């Protein structure tokens, strides 16, 4: 299916480098304005981007930005769009409250707008901007917008608390509490809880090519870590970092590597308080009580 959208583009005035593109959901020509544009440090125009197939790798910065929008609009789920080579297509940008500029232009921008009634702020220097500056997802709460990148997929009913983080091409598929880290490539199923300080290993560094996912009704305890996939109704004890190579004692006394349990359901992973042995026991995921439905009614 061919996708064709109209976007408003900012480019560096000197080099012509594309800084960003915003694609309104209405697919109308809607212009933006900012002090960097007024000062002549950046330029703007409208661009029409057409993607013949999302299975093909992105071909330009404009193409990459449209794919990130589609993920954050929940038009596609993580891994349903090819993002190969995206880092090479995106410029490293200084994201400021006066508009996006190349990092080398920050001092110039600060000087040129010194007479404006504005407290100049640089919020980040990164290839990916904040999601909420481009896409507002439906039925979602985000306590700290700086911690959610454009390209994150947040299904209705998702609540991101202040310490929660969601990278691009990752996110949630339904009601979820996110108080920890959802790294790039990670998908979290409905009615799951990522506890405070918890982390799920991604695919950009340390996680290799293995895509980590969590099924439904899972609890990743506070300060826990996850390096394997979980099926449904699983619990990982607070403070336990479960990597693929972790030796896990099974109910029958045998010991296996955690990777052999990847994707299985109804398991509680815990560390024996006296011996330190990581154990897996069969459990009913409902024992942790599940999500508070009222907290995730984000109308």
- Write down the overall mean pLDDT: 94
Inertia-based shape? elongated
Give the number of helices: 4
- The parts where pLDDT drops under 50 for at least 5 residues are none
Strands of the biggest beta sheet: in what spatial order?
Answer: 7-9-12-15-18-20-24-25-22-23
Percent of residues in helices: under 10%
**Largest sheet descriptor:** 10 strands, mixed
E-strand count: 25
Summarize the helix and strand pattern as letters.
Answer: EEHEHHEEHEEEEEEEEEEEEEEEEEEEE
Question: Keywords, please?
Answer:
elongated; mainly beta; 25 strands; 299 residues; five-stranded parallel beta sheet; ten-stranded mixed beta sheet
Q: Overview of this structure, please?
A:
Helices cover 9% and strands 29% of the residues. It contains four helices and 25 strands. The strands form five sheets. It has a ten-stranded mixed sheet, with no helix packed on it. Strands 10-13-16-19-21 form a five-stranded parallel sheet, with no helix packed on it. A four-stranded parallel sheet has the order 8-11-14-17. It starts with a strand and ends in a 17-residue tail after the last strand.
